[in-house]
Amino acid sequence: MDVRSMNMRSHLSRVRGLGANHIGVHHFWVQRITAIALIPLMVWFMIEALQLVNASHEAFVFWVGSDYNPVLLGLLIVFSFYHGQLGLQVIIEDYVRNEGYKITLIITIKLFALAVAICSLFSVMRLTFKVLL
Fold it and tell me: How many domains would you assign to the chain?
């Protein structure tokens, strides 16, 4: 009899020995940290947005460029798109079986999130500097 075939370990203990070697732990914590950071940012944004419902375009542009609003909007944009990208990546990794599709979708989502975040940050900066000029 082969010694390897006479393994006394249970199925669960054999599976525990396999795995990603804690690669997902960093991903897990980054997603939780971005979620926690988004809570006060979203509360702030909702309160401010409700106050701007009937505001004119000039008032909105002034609001974007005043005080700390550009910084908070920038943080909201960065954390929102990064958190969304991380969440979609987890869904793709869990449910897409074809490795080619999986890699293509993950790269596409990362590039899309990066492009839209850069455009959003550029828009905030443009409105901010319009107020300052």
Answer: 1
Q: What is the pLDDT of residues 51-97, one digit of tens each?
A: 999 999 999 999 998 889 999 999 999 999 999 999 999 999 999 99
CA distance 86 to 5: 41
CATH number of residue 101's parent domain: 1.20.1300.10
Instruction: Assess if residue 6 is contained within a domain.
Output: no
**Which pair of structure tokens corresponds to residue 87?**
């969440």
**DSSP code per residue over 102-120:** HHHHHHHHHHHHHHHHHHH
Q: Is residue 92 part of a domain?
A: yes
Give the pTM: 0.79
- In this structure, is the dihedral angle defined by the CA atoms of residues 56, 62, 68 and 72, taken in order, positive or negative? positive
Mark 18-39 as b/e (b = at least 16 C-beta within 10 Å): eeeeeeeeeeeeebeebeebbe
- According to DSSP, residue 67 is labeled T
Whether pLDDT at 48 is above 80: yes
Residue 1 lies in a domain: no
